[in-house]
Amino acid sequence: MKKTELNNLVLLLVVLLVSGIFLAMIADFLLVILMAAIFSGLAMPLFRFYERLTKGRKSLSSALSLTTLSLIVIFPMLAILGIVAAQAIRISRSAGPWIEQRLEEPTAFHDFFRSLPFYDTLNAYSDLILQRAGEMVSKTGSFLFENISSFTLSTVQTFFMFFVFLYTMFFFFRDGQGMLMKMLYYLPMPEKDTSRMLEKFTSVTGATIRGTFLIGIIQGTLAGVAFQLAGIDGAAFWGALMTVLSIIPVIGSGLVWVPAVIFLYVTGSFVAATSLLAFCGLMVSSIDNILRPILVGRDTRLHELLIFFGTIGGIGLFGIVGFIVGPIIASLFITVWEIYGETFKEYLNENMP
């Protein structure tokens, strides 16, 4: 081996070693950095507007962009979350006493079972249902007590990560273009391939965020109104929960309204239950089936099955941000295989398309 080749090999090993240590060091912040890069890229037109307004002052433009985003998006979202949290606390406080009251009066449960059309089948399991309900109530208090400290720690960590997110966005606004060009320069790939992957990353990110948020807001709003008309307590909370769960394609909204329909049937509100079932089954669920392929699939040019598995797989691996990261990885997966097919097409089966 020539000395030059040996030096290059040693340099490559050192680069990989140091890079691996650095990535391990910032592993807890990688998702925050990725989300800051994504949202700063989506808000780049706002930064360009302020840059023209301030005559090229990048730091001032970045600060103004973050301030505008905070006033328009972040603070209103925090206010809405506060309202939702208040309703969630009220629901949790009222649920426990209601169950305890029913447990203290077992005959109330039996009278309730007799009013159901499937009483004969359900009555055989009434004692087991009462036992499990008692265990659930007894464990709820201890669970809340044991998790107060961890919840407080999680809240502090969330605020810290939020600060890191905003701080990172500031520098991505200001220096992101240069950082991106430097990263692409270090990739040992043809420029057309790197441009193709970057274009796919950008298009999938924008389409996923716009489509998912629009679908979630529509489904959550309609379901919240329907829950309110059906007489379900905490309609704003359930609507917000459906907005979040709607990130899961096809089944997300059903995770909220199906149990609500069952609850209304069980409590004897047959008209409200049937109306809610018809409205959510025909109207709310169809929004996802109609709009998601249009808003997400059209711009990303991804098959609905890839969007589905990319979303639920991303959520399972990365948490809530997986609804963005998952489809991006799925699209890059398809893109790199397309590049592979074009690069090695002379070695592949010529009979295949």
Automatic annotation (TrEMBL):
Annotated localization = Membrane
Q: Does the keyword Transmembrane apply?
A: yes
Matching InterPro entries, A to Z?
A: AI-2E-like
Major localisation: membrane
Q: How does it sit in the membrane?
A: Multi-pass membrane protein
Coiled-coil regions listed: none
Q: Which Pfam families does its entry note?
A: AI-2E_transport
Q: Any stretches that span the bilayer, and where are they?
A: 9-26, 32-50, 62-89, 151-173, 235-256, 262-284, 305-334
What family is this?
Belongs to the autoinducer-2 exporter (AI-2E) (TC 2.A.86) family.
What is the recorded name of this protein? Answer: AI-2E family transporter
* Originating organism: Prosthecochloris vibrioformis
The organism that produces this protein has a lineage beginning with: Bacteria, Pseudomonadati, Chlorobiota, Chlorobiia, Chlorobiales
